[in-house]
Amino acid sequence: DSNDPQTLINLIVLSQLTAKPTEVSNRYISQMKDSHANHPFVRDLANKANELDRLVRNYQPSVSS
Known about the structure:
The chain is mostly helical and 65 residues long. It has one domain (5-58). The protein contains three helices and no strands. The longest helix has 19 residues, at 40-58. It starts with a helix and ends in a 7-residue tail after the last helix. Belongs to the COPE family.
């Protein structure tokens, strides 16, 4: 079943391991987010994205005057 969360996760990993275009894995990730928003994979992905955003903000260059 192509809408099964485990199948989608496997497709995401497989598309990255086989060097498919980024759009392919992004499509699977979007499908996963839309269909299984409360799945641990989606929650973990969101947490990692938020953490990366936080780190980026901490290391933005400051402008000296």
